[in-house]
Amino acid sequence: MEHVVAAAVIDAHGIVTGWSEGARLLTGHAAEEAVGRAAVDLLVEELPPLPARAWTRPALVRHRDGQHVTLTVTACPVLGPDGEPAGWALTAERPSGPEPTLAERAFQQASMAMSVFDPHQRYLRLNEVACKVMGVSEDVLLGRSFQDTVQEAEHSRGFNWHLRHVAETGRPIRYESWTGAPSLNREHAWTTEMWPVREPSGEVVGVALAAFDSTEQYLARQRLALLNEAAASIGTTLDIVRTTEEVVDLLVPRFADFVSVDLLDWVLGADEPPPVPDGEVVLRRVAHGSAHEGTPEAAVRLGETDVHPPFSPPARALRDGHAVRIQAGEPDFMSWLAERNALAPEGRRFRSGVHSVIAVPLRARGTTLGVLVGVRIAHPDDYEADDAVFAEELASRAAVCIDNARRFARERTTALTLQHSLLPRGLPGQVAVEVAHRYLPSGSTAGIGGDWFDVIPLSGSRVALVVGDVVGHGIPSTATMGRLCMAVRTLADVDLPPDELLTHLDDLVTHLAAYDDAGEDVAELGATCLYAVYDPVSRHLTLAAAGHPAPAVVLPDGTAQLVRMTPGPPLGVGGLPFEAVELELPEGAVVALYTDGLIEDRDRDVDRATGELCSALTAPAASLDALCDTVLKAVLPEEPGDDVALLLARTRALGADQVAAWDVEPDPAQVAATRQAATEQLTAWGLEEAAFVTELVVSELVTNAIRYGAPPIRLRLIRDRSLICEVSDGSSTSPHLRRAHAFDEGGRGLLLVAQLTQRWGSRQTDRGKTIWAEQSLEPG
Questions:
Q1: Higher pLDDT, 48 or 745
Q2: Which of 118, 230, 540, 741 is most open to solvent, judged by the fewest CB atoms within 10 Å of its CB?
Q3: Is the separation of the CB atoms in 566 and 521 below 8 Å?
């Protein structure tokens, strides 16, 4: 560029009165634009007062296009007639050497990579950061096409496409990429802005860009995205192992090339947490995964224990309570790697590239559960402080999920144990019915419910069949089930009719609810129960229900139907009656009692489900056990939402040859005749060995009925698996044992009966009471 000198004249008032062609070339202002204007309008900053002598100094002039131009200005005063300055004559020129403008300095010193390309993607300008990224100086790149300066790669082709698109369309573009650069040893995240450079006419003469290295922001977003993903993907089930597997699946390979989750043994059991040891730590491998199929880096197999020495990252993390990072070259790293290689030498070649390890304790609710270990092999970056913060946050969330699964497993195990201990394990053998049962706990996360069933032997070879359901799930419902189960057994021992038994049970539930804390849900309220009594002598089935589904009956001819009955209100409602219904069943009929979990579900029609139940009950089956399985398979959905209890009872009958009865006149003289009749019946049954005890029992019970009871009096002998002696009379007064004194003439009869028989008792009847006693007929 040729050397240009500007000249201008300014009067005493600072107004431009003369303007040369050189001034136009340097400032862009023509003479007609400058003459008549104040000189300060052409300056960027105001000059101090001009001295009355010649001077030279730099001045920052505003160019017509808005840029600032630095000029060296020399001024000489123009003297008037009185010798005083009447103005100034100025000359100006560019400083010696190219002085960069402020915009040029800003371009060169920008903290981001900035470049300018012509419409054909050739370099026109680069700033210092762009030259560092490219790894060469500006003069090496100027005039060369971008594609000629980089390796052929997908990200290079994408960058060139954006340059060409901006040049062709004239529209700016902003995009983000994850790519490498010639001078960088790893990939970076870049946020790039490209915009067209235009002539005043609007023609696109170039493309400018600014690329910001947003790697830290990108990684921070990635970590945040992982945390958000963890909230949705970890803890989807209440299973400890599956939860740890979800942690591994989330972190590999985005955060680590190998991840393992090891837990303390007590977490997988029912023990209380012991203190974390200060020395070596024994952990059990629960889950691991890697970028390599089969996880060859693992030094421990799934399910095995591993002893971690005190210097190892897992032991330090458990001991210190925070994340521990070690890198290649550190003494602890070398010791840890050598220990891993010695433990599993077959995986040595897969660990050869390990350069960074992080171990994070899994802590929830102040309790240490285990440790999470991440290893980087192919991942180029070592673990940094931000990674440790992320890992601790993720481990904290994962630990809560693991602890939730542990607590659920422990509560479920406790509830199952409690429930199984309360349910009958082996039902007693008897003549009245043949029974089979199934109990299926719910597989839902709600926990164990309060379904229960029971088979209770009663006097006179009768049997009680019970099934019930408690509202809710978990240990409270199971405990409530236990209370109701024991209450029913106690009331059954009193030998109450079904409707009276449910009335007493309802009163009990109401009293329990009244004693519980106000404001808390009482599990007994809303519980249901069905109580049935079958008598094999009369073949009558008497039953009553408290809010419970009616049972189904399958007759020997193959027909099945629900029992027509009026179910009373659920237990705890109070004030409403329970109605009993009585059926006469042929021998071989099957009675099916069940809880509502078998037929009720959100997506099922109850009428259709009960129809399926009746149909399944008529299916051919080799045994009652097989019929149970058939029913469950046919009626239950794939994933039942509630517990299911099913009790099947096939009725039997005692024939006339097994029962003998006599009416007894209320005369003491009849005792001997009655005793003789009983002895003859035993002889007919071939039970002569039981005759002596039976004579004593008959004498005592008949004598008491005549002396203290009321007509009618009746004796009945039943030959079952035991010999049962029953004496009924019209009085409702129940006998009781008492201790006779030395000189008392009586009072020892019932004590003698209790000593000679297996068990004895009394029950109320519609016409009075029945006193009974049983003798075992088993040999020995």
A1: 48
A2: 741
A3: no
Which residues are within 8 A (CB) of 353 and not within 5 positions of it... i.e. 6 or more apart?
A: 377, 378
Contact between residue 578 and residue 541 where contact means Cβ atoms under 8 Å apart = no
Residue entry with tokens 């402080």 = 385
Beta-sheet pairing, 768-776 with 759-765: antiparallel
326 membership: H or E segment, kind and range:
strand 324-327
Q: Give 441-493 as a 3 state SS string.
A: CCCCCCCCECCEEEEEECHHHCEEEEEEECCCECHHHHHHHHHHHHHHHHHHH
What is the rounded CA–CA span in Å between residue 221 and residue 235? 23
Provide the token pair at 775.
């003798």
Find the helix or strand (DSSP H, E) in which 396 lies.
helix 385-422
Distance (Å, whole) CA 319 – CA 131: 48
How far is it, in rounded angstroms, from Cα 708 to Cα 710? 7
Q: Taking the CB of residue 311, how many other CB atoms lie within 10 A of it?
A: 14
Instruction: Say yes or no to pLDDT of 660 above 90.
Output: yes
Distance of CA 402 to the CA centre of its chain: 9
Type of residue numbered 316: R
> Sheet holding 367-376: strands in order across?
305-308, 281-290, 258-263, 367-376, 356-364, 324-327
Average pLDDT over residues 280-309: 93
What are the CA-CA distances from residue 152 to residues 155, 166, 191, 209, 594 (Å)? 9, 21, 21, 21, 74
Residues in the chain, overall count: 780
Q: Say how far residue 702 (Cα) sits from the centre of its chain.
A: 68
Query: For residue 14, what pLDDT is reported?
Result: 87
Tell me the C-alpha distance between 333 and 325, whole Å. Answer: 9
Question: Across all residues in the chain, what is the average pLDDT?
Answer: 86
HSE-CB of 156 using CA atoms within 13 angstroms = 13
Long-range contacts of 688-691 (CB under 8 A, 24+ apart): 690/723, 690/775, 690/777
Beta strands of 229-278 (E only): which ranges? 258-263
Question: What are 237-248's pLDDT values in tens digits?
Answer: 889 999 999 999
**pLDDT tens digits, 98-136:** 566 788 888 888 989 999 998 888 888 899 999 888 888
Which two three-digit tokens encode residue 250?
A: 């989330």
pLDDT per position as a tens digit, 400-445? 999 998 888 887 777 777 666 666 665 555 678 999 999 887 755 4
Which distant-in-sequence residues (6+ apart) come within 8 Å of 51 by Cβ? none
Q: What is the mean pLDDT of residues 228-240?
A: 89
pLDDT digits (tens, 9 = 90+) for 672-684: 999 999 999 999 9
Token pair of 146, please? 């971008």
Q: Can you give the pTM of this predicted structure?
A: 0.58
**Distances from the Cα of 159 to the Cα of 208, 212, 604, 706, angstroms:** 13, 14, 60, 115
Please state, for a pLDDT cut of 70, what percent of the chain lies above it.
Answer: 90
Question: What is the pLDDT averaged over residues 50-65?
Answer: 77
Nearest Cα to Cα of residue 488 among 466, 458, 470: 466
Provide the token pair at 416: 């199952």
Nearest 5°: the CA angle 651, 728, 685 is: 60
- The pLDDT score that the predictor gives to residue 519 is 43
Encoded amino acid at 559, one letter:
T
Residue type, 403: D
